[in-house]
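Dear colleague,

Following up on yesterday's call, I've attached the two folding results inline so they're easy to grep. Please treat them as preliminary; we haven't cross-checked anything against experimental data yet. The first protein's sequence and structure tokens come first.
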Amino acid sequence: MAKKLYVGGLPYATRDEELKEVFSKAGTVDSATVIIDKMSGRSKGFGFVEFASDEEAQRAIEMFDGTDLGGRTIKVNEARPMEERPRRDNGGNFGKSW
């Protein structure tokens, strides 16, 4: 069964291909995605790596959590489901103070 990992603290220059290459040392990487900010087009400094098996994912956590990648200490753990956030709605006033 595939397991998705969260990878935080990535250097902002890290791209999907590099992330996949690094984590493939722990096993078969099904996907590697660096999260990009929609407005700026820049990395948000975190991403997700999906492994073919739970064992490979656990190996990756043990190998990479707390290690240096491009001068930054990365955090690697099992990804949690995205929590629903409250909708950002300013009532249509768009910053007007009347």
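Below is the second protein, in the same order (sequence, then structure):
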Amino acid sequence: MKKLINDPNQVVRESIEGLTLAYPQYVRQVEGLQAVVRRDAPVRNKVAVLTGGGSGHEPMFAGFVGRGLADGSVAGNIFTSPPPAPIVGTAKAIHGGAGVLFLYGNYSGDTLNFDMAAEMLDADGIQVNTVRITDDVASAPTDQQAERRGIAGDFFVIKAAGARAEQGAALSEVTAAAEEANQNTRTMGIALSSCIIPASGRPIFDISEQDMELGMGLHGEPGIQRGPMRPADEVARQIVEAILADMPMGRGTEVAVMVNGMGATPLAELFIIFRAASRILSAAGISIVRSYVGNFATSLEMAGCSVTLMRLTSRLKPLLLAPGESPALVQV
């Protein structure tokens, strides 16, 4: 294992400190916590959007804290949910008096700890709503969407909720925007190689140099199919067609598209995947309003990518296009 780290047990703490030192114009660290908040938090009378989860997926989640996005992010250790206490502390650091919306991927550890934190905050008189993100098409059948994992589509839900909160909407309205974004967002990915957790120094799964796995999760959760490597155009077609089968869209539909790297995939390859995806969507009469290509939700140094489509309703489109400023996204 070769990694540019000091102590394997201090990777998250030192990474967060480095993030806040690099981008003080957007974020600051919450004292004593593995958490960041927007520089001007708390914003008075604005709904506070709190996200978070296990580390190792950078720039998700802390990279999307800032104006027009999340107000705060709390980090667990690598691939591990943050405990309730720092969630509570971060929520209090961003609460401006209008309530807090919890946004996070649908994983059992996150659900348990964020729910406990919500109960603790309620006891302190702070209203909390929760939206669990469920965009991973491969993780459960269409009729069991509530059981699905949240992966790269987290970004679009954070973007929609953050923009709505920035407009001064009430907690119920910000929650509704997040729910609508989640319902209209689908992701599927492929893995080409494993990643290595710093504390263990070992790959989390084995895959041959000749194979790829369709639908593998960000923590190495099994996918739906393992087979020989295919050309990029074929991979893109398999992914996009699976998404469209799960979320049918007629001609004239507008979408946002993300091609997300898992951490070790060159941008050149991600652009080749986007090239193929855009051609497939164009042939189906689906228009791309905004595209995002790069690393948004990674799995340390895993090779592979995912494709996310968000169907843009009349309410979601202006929220997607609204300005946002954070370490990992500057959109004007």
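For the second protein, one point worth flagging: Residues 56 and 63 are 12 Å apart (CA to CA).

Best wishes,
A.L.
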